[in-house]
Amino acid sequence: MKLCLVTPYSEEGAGGGITRHVQNVAEAAKSLGHELTILSGLMRPDSTKPAEIFGCPAFYVTDAPGSTFSPSFWKASRELFTRLDARRGFDAVLSEGSSANGLRGRTGGRPVLAFMHQFKPVHLLNSFKEISGPRSLASYALRTVPRCFYEAFSSELAFFRSADRVLCGARHIMRLAGALYRIPEERLVYTPYSIDRGAFRKDPALRKESRAALGISERDFVFLVLGRIQRTKGIDTALRAFEKFSRERPEAWLVIAGGGDAALEAELKAFAAGRKLRVLFTGMVPQGGLPGMYNAADCLIMPSVLIEVLPYVILEAVSSGLPVLASDMPGSREALGDSEGLFPSRDYEALAGLMTKAFSDEALRRRLSASASERLDALFSPDGFRQALSDSIKAVI
After folding, report:
1. Could you give the residue ranges of the DSSP H alpha helices within 114-248?
2. Are residues 232 and 158 in the same domain?
3. Is the pTM higher than 0.70?
């Protein structure tokens, strides 16, 4: 089959969920014998516009605003799709979220399969958690809420309802989408997230090399927070917990890996420096550097307060042999099950207690790692993702 994937992703860069998911789609499609062409809608200003993404030919909308809800983007994507379709003759269209909404009416009756991650009601709830004062409250009320409602009802709702299949990588998102958007049950497909178990694995040599690069001794214990620096990722919770935990433990480090909000990063650095905490900020970690970062750590902390879909960071850390301490949010619970490592969101004292236990109790670390690894093997395999995609394509073509 010849497939066209419409996605916000435009190049292999500094990681993130969209990177992992596009890679999964590309590798699954190729392994199933399909030809995948990527049409990318959102462009970073400094993008190099690579001719291929994960071995698949890629084409870009470059003359329209970077929004999949923009009429000018829809017009440009329709024109690009029409040109590509004339040359390649696509059998089906795949869409990251509602990115392919602008192609409705231009697919010639060919099926549309949409990968659902977050959708507008979830985005609205997550944005509410970012309110930190009168100014952000006003912005939320006057900009975020109207925009979310407009985009949900003007395009996203109709797109998902009309898609031949809606593929969800997390069951909690699938249930919520089915309830709120009234997507027919027979069109909703569980497509389990997965990661490259060959790339993300325990590697003693890589651990030694990565620790040397970070300037951390082999004897020290390292907690890792990896993700975008923004307030709702809960990094301040991890910092406050580390302050409480580390008062009498000079052999422990907190490594914060990621980029994002420069002002917030400066604030977090000032907090750590003012209290003389052993905290290392690495900045953004490129995709190829992630295995080394996980191997350098002894325990991952996932303190996000957001409704994450199903955090790839947790799956990658577990695959790398790490125990995980995570805020008790739907995505983390789906990834880890009923884990001893879950703590109430924003509760830094509860997290500090778990850090103390994880630091001093090797048996607990082994239990956390083993139970999560078993769950990863059972629920989040590349075979499961590939089979769900294959079954969905066969069902509609």
Report:
1. 120-128, 134-139, 145-151, 157-162, 171-181, 204-214, 235-245
2. no
3. yes
